[in-house]
């Protein structure tokens, strides 16, 4: 008694004279093949059914003559599958030389993959069928050359290519011709008679030979079809123009938050770090440095002097600073090397106005001392005085009382 798998085709297949699309689907669903032993045969009616969808036929509409003829020919030969006998036991031992061979192929009508286990015991080669899968090809053509290239693909292709490349070694992937590839048959389909003649489930004939004699061909790639699924990585530099700050955002903290949210989005997109929740103090400080860089690039031209008797240096990130006379003191870095800022810029005005309000409408001299702890504003007295004089509340309380004039009549 042999331990084998057989195919029991229910006979007879009662097919009416009228063959609508509904009947074709019913016949296909009667055959259950979970391991894919019969995938080269069962893929043919599925391809024919897809063609009926392209014709937009109703479920009870009659099939075209050529399609009906091809389906009846396939159906009459399906009884030959009763002769298929496949060994069920694998006889695989972990101590033996066992290799897993997976083949894949695609045509205009379908794509398929099949796996065999090859073992060598005392110079005897044994190839056993494991499983196979065949699917009808989508209307949009695809190519399997993606897995050999490390390009930037679209999202659908990228996820699958990345998984394949992570689970397999590039050196283990070899291209062979269609005649030597066992996945070629289920990707194109065949009749039951041809399936029995080829004994497809026994594996390719060359797998029984020495590995040095295995076929290997050079892969010919259609670059145009491959590049259709690739995406260009476009690096966009967002130009933060001056007018967007002076019109859309009227306060200095609002500008800082906008810049930091932009930087957080950029960081998450480039996967440099995942931040969530409210903005941290470190992020706010980095946003302020970014804003200082925007101001300096708009206000200062390279190679020109920035003021009389000013010793200007450059930080590692390209920001300009002023070397104060307290360079070697024990004060903070910002106090010893304050950022250089111009006296005419909307962001500088917003910065001074924010400090003016934060310090309870402080006057010009107090604001100069506070701003000097971090920034060096050219013509700071004139600039800060202009902002203070423009404060409505300060102007109201600084007004002198009206002196009444008394007239003397003689």
Automatic annotation (TrEMBL):
It comes from the Eukaryota. The lineage of its organism: Eukaryota, Metazoa, Ecdysozoa, Arthropoda, Chelicerata. InterPro entries: Integrase_H2C2, Retrotrans_Pao. This is Integrase zinc-binding domain-containing protein. It holds the Pfam family Integrase_H2C2. It comes from Cordylochernes scorpioides. Residues 345-397 form the Integrase zinc-binding domain.
């Amino acid at each position: 008694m042999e331990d084998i798998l057989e195919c029991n085709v229910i006979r007879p297949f009662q097919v009416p004279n009228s063959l609508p699309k509904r009947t074709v689907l019913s016949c296909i669903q009667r055959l259950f093949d979970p391991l894919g032993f019969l995938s080269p045969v069962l893929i043919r009616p599925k391809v024919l059914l897809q063609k009926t969808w392209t014709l937009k036929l109703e479920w009870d509409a009659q099939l075209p003559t050529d399609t009906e003829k091809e389906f009846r020919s396939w159906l009459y030969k399906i009884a030959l599958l009763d002769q298929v006998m496949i060994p069920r036991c694998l006889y695989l031992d972990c101590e033996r030389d066992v290799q897993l061979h997976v083949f894949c192929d695609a045509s205009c009508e379908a794509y398929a993959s099949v796996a065999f286990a090859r073992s060598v015991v005392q110079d005897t080669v044994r190839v056993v069928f494991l499983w196979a899968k065949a699917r009808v090809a989508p209307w949009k053509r695809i190519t399997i050359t993606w897995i050999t290239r490390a390009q930037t693909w679209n999202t659908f292709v990228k996820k699958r290519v990345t998984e394949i490349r992570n689970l397999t070694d590039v050196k283990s992937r070899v291209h062979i011709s269609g005649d030597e590839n066992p996945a070629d048959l289920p990707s194109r389909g065949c009749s039951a008679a041809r399936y029995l003649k080829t004994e497809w489930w026994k594996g390719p004939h060359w797998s029984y030979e020495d590995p040095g004699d295995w076929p290997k061909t050079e892969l010919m790639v259609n670059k145009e079809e491959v590049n259709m699924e690739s995406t260009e990585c476009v690096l966009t530099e967002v130009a933060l123009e001056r007018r967007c700050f002076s019109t859309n955002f009227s306060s200095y903290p609002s500008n800082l938050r906008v810049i930091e949210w932009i930087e957080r989005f950029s960081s998450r997109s480039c996967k440099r770090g995942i931040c969530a929740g409210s903005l941290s103090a470190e992020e706010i400080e980095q946003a302020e440095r970014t804003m200082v860089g925007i101001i300096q690039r708009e206000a200062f031209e390279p190679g020109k002097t920035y003021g009389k008797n000013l010793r200007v240096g450059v930080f590692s990130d390209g920001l300009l600073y002023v070397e104060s006379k307290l360079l070697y003191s024990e004060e903070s870095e910002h106090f010893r090397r304050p950022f250089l800022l111009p006296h005419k810029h909307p962001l500088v005005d917003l910065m001074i106005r924010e400090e003016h309000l934060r310090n309870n409408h402080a006057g010009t001299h107090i604001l100069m001392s506070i701003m000097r702890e971090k920034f060096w504003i050219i013509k700071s007295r004139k600039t800060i005085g202009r902002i203070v004089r423009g404060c409505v509340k300060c102007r109201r309380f600084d007004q002198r009382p009206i002196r009444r004039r008394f007239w003397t009549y003689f």
